[in-house]
């Protein structure tokens, strides 16, 4: 993607408003339980510090829905950032109020100020132009480094770019490099694995990937709608009866495009939605009444692994089974292990597949794990993301 980054502009002495994703999980005492989002924002912030910028950070945290709520304050983030950067990060008491004005007007080169949670104002998610203008008035340049919210047209993710020159930070640059390259110029064979609950959530992605991949592998709850469309019994498995025609159309499209569409040949079914439920592996054509498909079976795992070993680029979005229950996590874990060892560019499209890889302790074995669930899905769909579109072209 041809978007300018912080490297392409002179930031010396400039006030730079950086939209980060500091939406970190916390325990009931406000302790941050996973600081990865903060850590991954450091390269951009450090670069700006080293190059003499005056840094004004902003982010959302949770869903305060336009109200000031203490439990959604960015105070714990300011503390963690100070620790990580080795300097005091000053937290404004508000977003566009007196405190923010004062701190941002007195800021010096290399200093860092954090504004309070942008979602304390409803105008943020409404992308209110006046609010965006006020936010922008603190700075000379806008840097977007929050990929997780790039698919939202909010004031701090896109609106401010109407008033300031806008470029990307290093996190967004990395997302665009990996995912953009995979989609525009993949090393082939290019294989995509799509899992997750429903076909309806992934129609756009399937449709768009059928234009680009050599092989499309389907797993998860989605598969049963395809089986049903082929005329087979799916028992109590997740199945979208109103999407049968669509599943047929997608199979026909794959054929017409010469894309190898792979569906499970066996499935692990359970009696009930329970972690200890009785389970067995059956052929996809023989799902018994009263049973529910929760994972791909052994034959399918083998077949998918063979295909993945031949790939040169792999994009994976969505677990291929109910991986939260150990006995139905076998498929997802096997795919994760296989991908960790293939000689290919491996890209994980955020969300639950990233969680599964994390759980398996394999995070460092992939070329790229996207930081945005919804955003990466929309990116793979070929949609234009407002937080990216608003950035200057190179
Ligand atoms: P998604 O958000 O669409 O990627 O779906 C992820 C969720 O789908 C996870 O919570 C998985 O446990 C769930 N899932 C995947 N396969 C199945 C299945 N066969 N039956 C029920 N849930 C599933």
Give the SSE layout.
Layout: E1 15-19, H1 36-50, E2 54-58, H2 75-85, E3 90-91, H3 98-105, E4 112-114, H4 122-126, H5 129-136, E5 141-144, E6 166-168, H6 170-184, E7 190-194, H7 199-209, E8 215-218, H8 222-229, H9 244-257, E9 260-262, E10 266-270, E11 279-283, E12 292-296, H10 298-309, E13 313-317, H11 330-341, E14 345-348, H12 351-359, E15 368-369, H13 373-380, H14 386-389
Parallel strand pairs: 1-2, 1-5, 2-4, 3-4, 5-6, 7-8, 7-13, 8-9, 13-14, 14-15
Antiparallel strand pairs: 10-11, 10-12
The chain binds adenosine monophosphate.
What would your notes on this structure say?
This protein folds into two domains: 167 residues, Phosphoglycerate kinase, N-terminal domain (Rossmann fold, 3-Layer(aba) Sandwich); 195 residues, 3-Layer(aba) Sandwich (Rossmann fold), CATH 3.40.50.1260. It contains 14 helices and 15 strands. The termini are close together. The mean pLDDT is 96. α3 links the parallel β3 and β4. It has 394 residues and is α/β, with parallel strands linked by helices. The protein is elongated, with a radius of gyration of 23 Å. α1 packs across α2 and α10 packs parallel to α11. The protein has a six-stranded parallel sheet, sandwiched between helices. The protein binds adenosine monophosphate.
